[in-house]
Design brief:
The complex is a heterodimer of chains A (142) and B (154). Chain A is mainly alpha-helical. Chain A has 6 helices and 1 strand, in the order βαααααα. Chain A has one domain. Chain B folds into 2 domains: 75 residues, no CATH class; 76 residues. In chain B, helix 5 packs across helix 6. The chains are: A mainly alpha (142), B mainly alpha (154).
Chain lengths: 142, 154
């Protein structure tokens, strides 16, 4: 393993993480809910009265963030190297996988770990291991 | 209405955090997941920062019955560690490692007007729809058995 010092940005990474922590804290303290993005989005596919507005509002905030972000800081580059077929396969896997697992990086990785949930710890170790393994296969074996 | 505004602001701050941290950029996520290459450990600090702040809020939230706006506190009660949890997470991790997108960053990139994020999002929502369809089928086919409880997120 070699460290990529040229891209290592500890201060913005930590500050961004703190912002994410503030967001999930605001969300649970004010609305009483877990800010798990796959769950917020997936719940719209089984719509129930009174259970739609807050989901749409939270997702609108996420989608709207890049529109307001340039007011505070230069917009970072978003580089997506994957091709069309890979995007579709990966999207399907992320969609179905996060719903079976009942959570993703936010619901399990941030909120669940912060709650010391054993379920979330298992989920997080599983998707991290699968992510490391997949990148290893794609970049170093194929 | 206050709940809607709180949700919008939380989503917005979450999105800012993803952009500032580098987590919204798939190339950087893959750089973090590439242990055998030139490893960029930055994103481990994203999680450390988020979990550090979040753990204080959740410790406070766990002792309350209602939120500060009076909504019921709905923290997950599921404790079962089963195949659904593990295999679902592995499937998610494979998709994450293929592109570098998990759901939050994909939504942020969609808002930034990235066409590839739109393709990913449509496939992701289709995958979620497939889950709903399989769940409904499972519950109707196995009507003799008690319906499986829907586990809340995390």
């Amino acid at each position: 393993m070699t460290l990529d010092w040229s891209n290592f940005t500890p201060m913005t990474a930590l500050a961004g993480g703190v912002l994410i922590g503030i967001a999930v804290s605001l969300f649970v303290l004010l609305t009483g809910r877990i800010a798990g993005i796959s769950g917020v989005l997936g719940g719209l596919l089984r719509p129930a009265r009174g259970d739609i507005g807050w989901r749409v509002a939270f997702l609108a905030g996420l989608i709207g963030a890049p529109l307001l972000y340039p007011l505070f800081a230069p917009m970072p580059e978003l580089r997506i190297d994957a091709g069309f077929a890979t995007l579709i396969v990966a999207g399907l896997l992320v969609g179905i996988g996060t719903r079976y697992a009942a959570g993703c990086t936010s619901g399990h990785g941030v909120c669940g770990i912060a709650r010391l949930s054993p379920r979330s710890l298992v989920a997080t170790l599983s998707f991290m291991a699968a992510g490391f393994g997949t990148v290893f296969v794609v970049r170093h074996l194929i | 209405m206050p709940i809607l505004i709180a949700s919008l602001v939380a989503g917005l701050v979450f999105g800012f955090g993803l952009l500032l941290s580098g987590m919204a950029n798939p190339a950087r996520v893959l750089g973090f997941l590439d242990l055998a290459g030139r490893w960029d450990p930055s994103l481990a600090l994203v999680m450390a920062g988020a979990v550090g702040v979040g753990s204080l809020a959740f410790a406070f939230a766990a002792r309350r019955r209602v939120s500060l706006l009076g909504a019921p506190m709905q923290l997950p009660s599921a404790r079962r560690i089963d195949r659904r949890l593990a295999l679902g997470s592995v499937a998610f991790g494979i998709g994450w490692g293929l592109v570098g997108f998990c759901p939050g960053p994909a939504l942020v990139a969609l808002g930034a007007g990235e066409h590839k994020a739109l393709v990913f999002m449509l496939a992701m929502v289709a995958g979620m729809g497939l889950f709903e369809w399989l769940e409904r089928r499972r519950n109707t086919v196995a009507f003799a058995a008690p319906p499986t409880p829907v586990e809340s997120d995390a």
